[in-house]
Amino acid sequence: MRALPLFHDLRDRLCLVVGGGDAATRKAAVLESVGARVVHRETADDLQDVALVVIAETSDEVARHAFERCKAHGIPVNAVDRPRYCTVTWPAIVDRDPITIAIGTSGAAPTLARLLRGRIERTVPAPMSALARLGETWRARVKATLPAPVSRLRFWERFFEGPVAEAALAGDLAEADRRARALLDDREIQPRGIVHLVGAGPGDPELLTLRALRLIQSADVIVHDRLVSEEVLAFARADAERIYVGKRRANHCVPQQDINELLVEHARAGKRVVRLKGGDPFVFGRGGEEIESLLEAGIACDVTPGITAATGCAAYAGIPLTHRDHAHTCLFVTGHLKDGDLDLNWDALARPRQTLAVYMGVVSLPQLARQLIAHRLPGSTPAAVIIDGTRPTQRVITGTLASLPGLAASVDASRPALVLIGDAVGVAARAPTEAWPMAAE
Q1: Does the 194-307 domain belong in CATH 3.40.50.261?
Q2: pLDDT digits over 191-208, tens only?
Q3: With 60 as the cut, is the pLDDT of residue 52 above it?
Q4: Long-range contacts at 295-301 (CB < 8 A, ≥ 24 apart)
Q5: What is the pLDDT of residues 300-341, one digit of tens each?
Q6: Taking 50 as the threshold, does the pLDDT of residue 432 lie above it?
Q7: CB of 282 within 8 A of CB of 305?
Q8: Which of 115, 223, 254, 373 could serve as a FRET partner for 20 with CA atoms 20 to 30 Å apart?
Q9: Contact call for residues 408 and 441 (beta carbons, < 8 A)
Q10: Quick check: 389 and 317 in contact, CB under 8 A?
Q11: Is the preceding omega at residue 98 within 30 degrees of 0, hence cis?
């Protein structure tokens, strides 16, 4: 973030517009709409009691002089289409009073800001103003009736997303007010804890489901593992508690039983808990164990699926998991070593016309290749390792079942990686490079 966005109260404050033209007229109108006292001058020589200066159409010499004067006196100054003479930038504004949405690009792309404003205006309807004003009238009453912060949070979530909002947005404020009274009398507004098991996908935040995004944004507590990207965590509320329980290979920093107890503890405290897992909670994510523990403890819970690593990483690498000519089945298996060994059904894995997606398989790759070849899967079978799949740092190493262990020997085992084996993997080599910019090595 290049600049800190702030909302400036200019009611009854003096604002100076230097220069003229259409830009000066537009800026002055906006300033007057928020209650400012606007004066127009040709120069910025007199800055007494001035709260903000806008430089409109004028010569570069006058603009530079005004900028230097404002900077010397610590007065915010904005110059239309001249970023070098700005200490503050003028955002594109969506006005839904008392809601104000400002979009800024630090002067880099004002046209883009205006285009984004158009999108937001279509998303935030004009009646949203009435809903916000209705909420304002209820603030004191709600605070007096619901002293617990978490109870007030639940009330406002239901106020702005449920029947109250529906009535207000439909223009029936009397009905909206009636529904708000009923909501405040509802004893179920008292906090009831719940745990949502949410799949965060393989890394790219744009692969989140809409439901996952909504739950992350509404969570009181987020319990997350190491495969959840910072970009995904950034969607959380600023006041949400984040608890890291990540596990690395051969280093379970938080035992699973302790994670289960942690989820129960926060839910019993009336919190809305999101257990955020990389990929999908039920694909090698131990989500089943956590659900069992929550149900035994009588905790309400549900599951939001996510895009699992095999589908997400393969897609971003341009590798089909199934193919009419090469693979009629796809198997997901774990390459996690137990006591230094892989306990897998090798006869079932070493079959032709199928794709193997091996999670956590980099360390076990030599043993994996050796066993598959020993069970008659040709060493020439195409294979790939996808590191940091779907992220900007994604790498794809391609080879054969026989060569891949050597090619992948230098891969950092702490990085998330997926191994794909099967004839369909070779199809990626024929994909146009401009279509799949993640270059193979």
Answers
A1: no
A2: 678 999 999 999 999 999
A3: yes
A4: 297/264, 297/268, 299/193, 299/194, 299/195, 299/263, 299/264, 299/267, 299/268, 300/192, 300/193, 300/194, 300/195, 300/267, 301/194, 301/195, 301/196, 301/197, 301/267
A5: 999 999 999 999 999 999 999 999 999 999 999 998 877 667
A6: no
A7: yes
A8: 115
A9: no
A10: yes
A11: yes
SS3 324: coil
Which residues, in sequence order, are CB contacts of 211 under 8 Å at separation 6+?
304
Q: Is 408 a residue whose pLDDT tops 70?
A: yes
**Catalytic residue IDs:** 225, 247
Structure confidence at residue 249 (pLDDT): 54
> Quick one: CATH architecture of 14-90?
3-Layer(aba) Sandwich (3.40)
**Cβ 236 vs Cβ 244: under 8 Å:** no
Mean pLDDT of 28-38: 96
Homologous superfamily assigned to 313-430: Tetrapyrrole methylase, C-terminal domain (3.30.950.10)
The pairing of beta strand 14-18 with beta strand 37-41:
parallel
Position of tokens 């899967």?
Answer: 377
